[in-house]
Amino acid sequence: MATGTGITTARTRMPTDDGPDLRHHGDAEVRDDGGSLVDLAVNVRADTPPAWLREHIAGSLGGLAAYPDGRAARAAVAARHGLPVERVLLTAGAAEAFVLLARALKVRRPVVVHPQFTEPEAALRDAGHTVDRVLLREEDGFRLDPAAVPEDADLVVIGNPTNPTSVLHPADAIASLARPGRVLVVDEAFMDAVPGERESLAGRTDVPGLVVLRSLTKTWGLAGLRIGYVLAAPESVEELERAQPLWPVSTPALAAAEACVGPRAVAEAAHAAHRVAADRAHLLAGLARFAPAGLRVAGPAEGPFLLVRLPHASVVRRRLRDLGYAVRRGDTFPGLGEEWLRLAVRDRATVDGFLQALEQALHG
Fold first, then answer.
1. Alpha helices (H) in the chain, listed in sequence order
2. 22-47+266-362: what fold?
C-alpha cells in the first residue's frame, strides 16, 4: 500500500501453511556437524556468561530442593526499570512470553511487522490466530511507517532493534501505534546491546496497551538457561501469569535474573554495548570492500548483528561453512529471500578471519 510518508509497505494476510519456515533459527546453523564452526549465526554475545555470573548461578544450586521463589528477582527487575513489581512478569526466555500472549489474549486481528524474529507469528498461528503481516522494504531502509499498520489491528508486534535488520526504530514512532483496545508488543531482546538503550520503551507507563519484552539470554550468554521478562500494565501481567504453568522459571534462572539487572551487571552490559558498536563498525568497514561484488548492508545497523544482501547468498553460505564459518540464512524471515544473510558481530580477530573467508567464498 502507498502511505502518506512515501514509504511503500506490503500488507498481507497469510494462511497458516504458507511462507517461510518460521521455526528456523540461527542455532540450526551450528548444531550437529556445525558445532566446530566459527559462529556468526547466533546472536548471543561471545565469551559469555562471564565467570562471575557462572559462579553466581552455580551458587544457587544448593537451593534446588525447594520450589522456585521469584519474588526477589521480580523486585530486582522492577527496580532496574523504575516500575512497581505488579508490572513485571518473569518468563522462561522472551520466547515463552510470545506463547503466553498468543494463548492468553483474546484478539481478532493480530499484526506482525516483518522482517523480524519469527517466533511471535509462529506462536500466534499455533494458538489458532490468522496473522496479518506488514512487510517493511529494503528500499525504505526497513524503517517503520506507523501508517502502514491497519487501524483495526488489536495486537501489533514489532522488534526494536529489529532482528534481523538491525534497525532501531524511534520510540515515538512505535508509541504512536498505541490505540485504545490495542495491545502493542515491543520485543526489546537486543536493546541492552544498544549504547544508552536509546529508543527503549521499557519503563514507560504512559503508552496504553504497551507490553515490552526483554531477554537476558543474548547479552549474558544464557540461551540454555531460558530467562526473560515482560513489562506491562498490572492487569496484562495478571492475564499472562494465569496462562503460565506453576513455577515457570527455575531457581538458577531466577538467580541469573536478579544478578543481570543489578547495578554491576547493567554497567558491564553498557560497556559491552559500546564494544559491540566498535566491533560492528570494524565489520562494516571490512564489508565495504565487497560492494563491487554486489554486497549491500541494510542500515544503519544498531544491533549486535548485520543484515547483508549479496548475489548467490545461499552458495556463499555453503562455501563459508566449508571454510569453517556459520552465518544465518535470511530466507526464513518474511519479507526477505535467498539473497540475504545475517551476520553476528564478533571481536576484531574473528571478523578479520571471517572477511578473509568471505573473500574466498565470493570468488570461489
1. 51-59, 71-81, 93-104, 119-126, 171-175, 217-220, 234-243, 251-260, 263-288, 313-322, 348-362
2. Aspartate Aminotransferase, domain 1 (3.90.1150)
